[in-house]
Specification:
Blueprint: E1 3-7, E2 10-13, E3 18-25, E4 33-39, E5 46-51, E6 58-60, E7 68-73, E8 78-83, E9 92-99, E10 117-118, E11 122-127
Parallel strand pairs: 2-11
Antiparallel strand pairs: 1-3, 3-8, 4-5, 4-9, 5-6, 7-8, 9-10, 9-11
């Protein structure tokens, strides 16, 4: 059974930083496109960032460009999201997701229904 587990969330003041991790097991990690989503209370799940299977191509939502950096370590089956200059609007539950059938982000990367493997989420709260 494919499993994803996020960690690294927490409470931080505006302007601070956090680094999220997502560890995969029972999953062809090095063949999968990996994505970070987030969902705030009362809002739809939003695509934050995508990285292709090699790690050489990345995509970002406009709201996080220049502040967040996605990366992966295929040897460790781990996905990362470095979040800098955090804003209260970044407060949400953050999820990682995997598409093992396609190793490329493409234009559909932010569509949640594309992904069948999801983690349980890690909460990020940014205080003003």
């Amino acid at each position: 059974q494919e499993q994803l587990m996020e960690s690294g969330g927490g409470l931080v003041q505006a302007g601070g930083s956090l680094r999220l991790s997502c560890t995969a097991s029972q999953l062809s990690f090095d063949a999968a496109v990996m994505v970070w989503f987030r969902q705030a209370p009362g809002k739809e799940r939003e695509g934050v960032s995508c990285i292709n299977r090699s790690g050489l191509a990345t995509w970002y939502a406009d709201s996080v460009k220049g502040r967040f950096t996605i990366s992966r370590d295929n040897a460790k089956n781990t996905l990362y999201l470095q979040m800098n200059n955090l804003e209260p609007e970044d407060t949400a539950m953050y999820y990682c997701a995997a598409d093992t059938l396609d190793g490329y982000c493409r234009g559909s990367w932010y569509t949640a229904t594309r992904y069948r493997s999801w983690g349980q989420g890690t909460q990020v709260t940014v205080s003003s």
